[in-house]
Design a protein that fits this description.
Length: 333
């Protein structure tokens, strides 16, 4: 929704292409399960942190959506769905199939609703968003614990990732492409009655509930956290998000005039666009990773938080990363 508002349709198209392409590529990158397992063991702490951030991001977003449309029970509904799936995870594949069918039904319902056309014309500075999106979606899947589970459980990972992401996931992203700007208008302009987007709300509740359950299941199964501690942490963070977003609703950061809720939301995206990809590119050299992260953080912050005519700073950040990676590899030759 933010990409469509800030950059227009090219950013939404790039989001779709890089998201699907990056996820599919993971299935082809690992030659066998042994290589995949070695990667998972090597990056175990980063994979765990990725899941913690993903859980926090999903819960925050749903709490924010609930606050915007005046439905505080949205997040509890997500947690209830996640709880049921978590405790019936032996049939999680059937849950995934059922949710896919329901999501397609909601997609059809949304297309048939009386939602007004929205403007997603390209903004002049959209090219600056392409490389950060590409880097984020190409590298982030490798730290997703649920993707590693899918690889391990598949008899033919290449075909599973090709069909799973290139067909099924792509069809769901088609829904995202259609609703993104409408949802953005509900969040930022209140220009569309919230009732019109209830098929979208239903879709998000299902998908986020499933995502929370999948990550929680893997975190507990692989003993990253005890189930009781993980469950209590999710509950406490959910209550915190609801309370925080109730208190700061419609607040802004005075000196830059940025909406506080949106700023917090974009902070989560910062991890996927910069921190995690940079870790995979430079993680073997932790001091270098931390230095480049410190240097690129202002560029990414200005580009994503302020945006607009300041979006060029994203290109500067990507140029810094590319230069460091090239110099590093030449030094290793």
């Amino acid at each position: 929704m933010i990409l469509g508002r800030d950059y227009g349709w090219p950013a939404l198209a790039a989001f779709t292409v890089f998201n699907v392409g990056g996820a599919m590529a993971m299935g082809f990158y690992f030659k066998n399960r042994s290589q995949q397992q070695d990667f998972e063991n090597t990056h175990k702490p980063a994979i765990a942190i990725f899941s913690y951030i993903t859980l926090a991001y999903q819960l925050f977003f749903m709490a924010w959506l609930g606050a915007v449309i005046g439905q505080v029970l949205l997040l509890p509904a997500v947690l209830l769905i996640a709880f049921v799936i978590y405790h019936t995870k032996k049939v999680i594949t059937y849950w995934a199939q059922a949710f896919y069918v329901l999501s397609i039904g909601l997609f059809v319902g949304f297309l048939g609703s009386d939602w007004p056309p929205v403007e997603i014309s390209a903004k002049g500075y959209w090219p600056h968003a392409l490389l950060p999106l590409a880097i984020g979606f190409i590298f982030s899947p490798y730290l997703d614990i649920t993707f590693h589970r899918a690889f391990k459980d598949s008899k033919n990972p290449k075909m599973s990732f090709l069909i799973g992401f290139g067909v099924l996931f792509l069809s769901l992203l088609g829904f995202v492409f259609f609703y993104a700007t409408s949802l953005g208008n509900v969040f930022f302009n209140q220009a569309i009655p919230a009732a019109i987007i209830y098929p979208v709300v239903g879709f998000l509740v299902l998908q986020i509930g499933f995502t929370v359950a999948a990550h929680a299941s893997e975190l507990s199964t692989q003993r990253y956290l005890k189930p009781s501690l993980l469950g209590s942490s999710i509950a406490v963070f959910s209550v915190f998000c609801i309370g925080l977003l109730t208190m700061i609703k419609d607040s802004s950061i005075p000196w830059v005039n940025l909406p506080l809720e949106e700023t917090l939301y974009k902070t989560f995206l910062f991890f996927y666009s910069l921190v995690f990809p940079l870790y995979l590119l430079l993680g073997k050299s932790k001091p270098l990773f931390l230095w480049v992260l410190a240097i690129c953080t202002p560029a990414y912050s200005i580009g994503f938080l302020i945006g607009g005519e300041h979006s060029y700073s994203l290109t500067i950040g990507v140029a810094i990363i590319a230069t460091v990676v090239v110099v590093k590899r030449q030094a290793q030759v």
